[in-house]
Amino acid sequence: xxxxTRLSVLCFGLLSSVAGSAYAGPxxxxxxxxxxxxxxxxxxxxxxxxxxxxxxxVVAVGTGQAIRNARNCDADVLLVHATSAEQAFVEAGxxxxxxxVMYNDFVLIGPSDNPAELDLDMPVAVGLEVIYARRLPFISxxxxxxxxxxxxxxxxxxxIEPDPHSGQWYLETGTGMGATLNIAVESNAYTLTDRxxxxxxxNKQAHxxxxxxxxQLFNQYGVIDIDPAHCPSVDHEAATRFIVWLTGDAGQAAIxxxxxxxxxxxxxxxxxx
Length: 273
What we know:
Blueprint: H1 3-22, E1 27-32, H2 33-37, H3 40-52, E2 56-61, H4 63-71, E3 77-80, H5 83-91, E4 95-110, H6 124-134, E5 138-140, H7 146-157, E6 170-172, H8 177-187, E7 190-194, H9 195-200, E8 208-211, E9 218-226, H10 236-247, H11 249-257, E10 259-260, E11 263-264, E12 267-268
Helix pairs in contact: 10-11
């Protein structure tokens, strides 16, 4: 065999070996704009890579889109914040197991002059009733994200259907949390956001938290490994490694240690085995 041909065969064999076994590419994590906007992954993932050597690529979209992407096998791991939708994902055979990983809370933000005259510790249903009664501008993400799902549940809990008022005082952006906050600030409007994104958000201007603390505003995040029986291409070993680290002592400590402006953004609560 000519030397050049032997070299070509050798190179092809080496590349095939690397592609087929030693290197499977980065772990694909479908997650939310809230975790991405908070800066958590910029802090957390380098620690994971240092510990394991694995690289993680994050796709940050709304929870609904992240779940759809994972259902279409465009993920190894799913980390989102809509517990009932996550459980349905697992029950339908798309994910193997859902585990709690961390929590924070949602807050209602609004103009500093607070035309709805909301009190910080007011029940959220009462606050929404006031916004509705006075037809004050409210910005919705309108994107089937975890935040949007929570917002819709809160309106329903208050006995209010905002859809007939879409395009009037109730405006839907169809965008992520950061863009929605920018629109709310520029429109002098109210909106719902997770606290972590609000703390990290750099364009608050005169807006502030006007309502917080209601138990209905609890915000749980869960992590799911994609079922290889549904998605044969999934890197199940890498997904398992990531989830074990994230829900173990090292990952939970890293989540607890992450702060912005000396404020803790997420609180780990993975169950202990």
